[in-house]
Write a structure and sequence with these properties.
Layout: H1 2-19, H2 21-50
Length: 61
């Protein structure tokens, strides 16, 4: 049964590749992953910049 599923997925991928849609789908996914990564890194940097500084209390002796 698994062989039939593998064959069907392979045929679908072959159809997408032959029509050029596979390349477009991969390019779209890569662009979305890059946008997500860029937004994630940007939010981390912004969070580090906006973090208030913690003032140290002087030690009493």
């Amino acid at each position: 049964m698994y062989i039939l599923e593998i064959v069907i997925v392979f045929l679908i991928l072959l159809l997408l590749y032959s029509t050029g849609w596979l390349v477009r789908i991969i390019q779209l996914l890569v662009a979305r992953f890059l946008d997500f990564g860029r937004a994630l890194i940007e939010s981390i940097i912004r969070e580090q910049i906006e973090k208030p500084e913690v003032k140290k209390k002087p030690k009493r002796s």
